[in-house]
Design a protein that fits this description.
The chain is built from 15 helices and 19 strands. It is of the alpha/beta class and 407 residues long. A seven-stranded mixed beta sheet has the order 4-19-10-3-9-7-8, sandwiched between helices. Strands 13-14-16-15 form a four-stranded antiparallel beta sheet. It has a two-stranded antiparallel sheet with strand order 1-2.
Length: 407
């Protein structure tokens, strides 16, 4: 039997014990720190002794789709092609969701492990990721969002609602993530997958800051499942797709730069197109507002003038050309705009004010997308073995470490 596989120029040993890689959506590191300090996460607290606690960088844009796909391919977006939740398709000349596996340009470690004879299971909170994570995977793959529709033919398993014994969760709830862990535990106990990938939703992190009762309760729930996975003999590897920050002024009002409005005033209504790659079907908790935007220019608009104009706007951290952004952030050059705009830590970017429904923002705005949300945890319940920590760790190094470098 094959003892190792090579995926996207990296080698991975096959699992010798059940290995669970967990992506906690929106896990700013301070959430864990605060929960540990409050005594709400005793398992995570003891990993500094029995395991390994590291910090790494997520990919930019610090959004869900690019980072989940980087984690499961072990490669940056320049390799796998997924550079946002939403993008402008040059072939169709339409703005589309980047959920379809046809946009994926590289194989996943998940699919290749399954081809090598391992039982692989994927449980994701939101269904938007399922087709991408499950691309060419012959195994188990389903979402908590559509748990009531799970069947053998499409998902490799059935009756998951009855097995988990939880009500069907709302997509805007902490229970959606809890369902992921409950389903994962059921799979671990019954099917005993060789490799499992669990991905949550950042609903709580968008709503509640680190150290708040709601955040600590959420991390206490996860900590309980981590302990149960550990007790069942699993190797655990925990990271995040991105961090999370408040995007408000001193009294809690949203700090928003509406780029399309400003650019329309300067260059005319059709001179510049602004696209927000954070856009996905679940905008209630962030209003499609993030700290990263792409800008497409008409031929009549001078790029240097737009760069100078945008750079002078309060709240803008930097403006990069397509080539600069592709090089700095390892992005597919043919799938990003003429310019990439990043906001400062406390600021988000919008298109036109009338295009954003902020009625669902019942609490101060929290979001992500920029370099200020790039630092994420890499946590393991085993010690490192024969691994020299590089100057820069990435969240997509986690499967390499989990399969190749733990005791």
């Amino acid at each position: 039997m094959t003892q190792a596989i090579t995926v996207n120029s990296r080698s991975y040993r096959l699992s010798i014990a059940p290995t669970i890689v967990i992506c906690i959506d929106g896990c700013e590191q301070d959430y864990i720190n605060q929960a540990v300090q409050a005594g709400q996460a005793p398992f995570l607290a003891k990993l500094t002794g029995i395991g390994t606690v590291l910090t790494g960088d997520c990919v930019i844009p610090s959004f869900t789709n690019p980072n989940n796909l980087s984690i499961v391919t072990g490669a940056p977006p320049s390799v796998h092609g997924i550079c946002g939740n939403f993008f402008f398709d040059q072939d169709t000349q339409k703005e589309v969701l980047m959920n379809d596996a046809k946009y994926l340009r590289a194989p996943t470690i998940l699919a290749e492990l399954a081809k090598a004879g391992q039982l692989v299971a994927v449980v994701t909170a939101k269904d938007k990721l399922r087709s991408l994570l499950g691309h060419q995977l012959k195994g188990i793959c389903f979402s908590a969002e559509k748990a009531d529709q799970v069947n053998i033919e499409e998902h490799g398993i059935e009756n998951i609602l009855a097995r988990v014994d939880m009500p069907m969760p709302s997509v805007y709830s902490a229970e959606l993530s809890e369902f992921v862990f409950a389903a994962g535990l059921s799979l671990l106990v019954n099917e005993r997958p060789d490799f499992m990938y669990l991905s949550t939703t950042d609903y709580i992190q968008h709503k509640h800051a680190p150290g708040t009762p709601q955040a600590n309760t959420f991390y206490a729930m996860m900590d309980n499942y981590f302990q149960r996975f550990h007790d069942a003999g699993a190797i655990l590897a925990i990271t995040a797709d991105h961090g999370m920050n408040a995007k408000t002024d001193a009294v809690g009002r949203p700090n928003i730069v509406f780029l399309q409005d400003l650019l329309d005033i300067r260059y005319g209504a059709k001179g510049v197109r602004v696209l927000l790659p954070i856009t996905d079907p679940y905008v209630v908790h962030h209003g499609a507002l993030g700290s990263y935007a792409t800008v497409y220019l008409r031929s009549s608009v001078e790029q240097a003038d737009v760069i100078a104009f945008l750079t002078g706007i309060a709240g803008i951290e930097c403006v990069l050309t397509r080539a600069q952004a592709a090089d700095r952030f390892e992005l597919p050059e043919d799938r990003i705009g003429d310019l990439i705009v990043l906001a400062e830590r406390l600021t988000v970017l919008g298109t036109a004010a009338e295009e954003h429904d902020l009625s669902g923002l019942a609490v101060p705005l929290r979001s992500h997308g920029g370099v200020s949300e790039q630092k994420v945890p890499l946590i393991f319940n085993r010690k490192l073995s024969g691994f020299s920590i590089p100057d820069r760790l990435r969240n997509f190094d986690i499967i390499d470490i989990a399969l190749n470098h733990l005791t």
